[in-house]
Design goal:
183 residues, alpha+beta, NADH Oxidase, binds flavin mononucleotide
């Protein structure tokens, strides 16, 4: 197995972080890997926003949590409460990816670069779609877009939490039954 396949095989979603900030050097390397991702027609209709501002993260987390708490279907809210009630799991920083609304697939590919680059550097991570609830039309959606510096017309695409693992988890067992060869 080569180094790339090893990182892919060992990556896992971390949901318990130490209160320790990765260095700017590491964050820059991860952000650079993000913008090296392929995109349709090489449009690169994305931004990579590294968020180290604790207050901003807390504000987004509490806005998204109250959005979840007020949803009729309590499944997701209960799931987060069972995991300790913290949408960001104590992560010290995150990358938020705003995108052109037509570039959702590109956003996914970019985030995959982030998680693999982070994993390869020993930085624990988890993609966090729930951050989008802070942008889901609540009163503070426009405020967060402004504070993060979203370009005009861009929307929240996804985010990735980053930090050092407090609890290490084994990767999920890949289901090779989902693979078929034709011919
Ligand atoms: C688009 C996307 C959004 C996700 N959003 C969340 C999230 O908001 N919170 C979370 O804890 N995990 C989130 N995840 C992580 C998945 O739950 C995780 O990848 C899955 O359970 C498989 O586990 P693994 O990453 O450890 O292999 C997200 C994953 C993807 C691809």
């Amino acid at each position: 197995m080569n180094e790339t396949l090893r990182v892919i095989a060992e990556r896992y979603s971390c949901r318990d972080y130490k209160n320790e900030m990765p260095s700017d050097e590491l964050l820059q390397a991860i952000a650079k890997a993000a913008v090296q991702a392929p995109s349709g027609m090489n449009r690169q209709a994305w931004r990579v926003i590294v968020v180290k501002d604790k207050t901003l993260m807390q504000d987004m987390e509490s806005e998204a949590m109250s959005y979840l708490a007020n949803m009729e279907d309590k499944t997701s809210y209960n799931r987060i409460m069972e995991r300790g009630g913290r949408l960001f799991y104590g992560a010290p920083c995150m990358i938020v990816v705003p995108i052109d609304p037509a570039a959702l697939i590109d956003c996914g590919i970019l985030c995959q670069n982030i998680v693999l680059a982070a994993a390869s550097l020993g930085i624990a991570n988890v993609m966090c779609g729930f951050t989008g609830l802070a942008f889901a039309g609540g009163v503070r959606a426009a405020e967060f877009s402004r504070r993060l510096g979203f370009p005009e017309g861009y929307v929240f695409g996804c985010s990735v939490l980053l930090g050092y693992a407090n609890t290490i988890k084994p990767p999920h067992v890949p289901d090779e039954g989902k693979i078929t060869f034709v011919g």
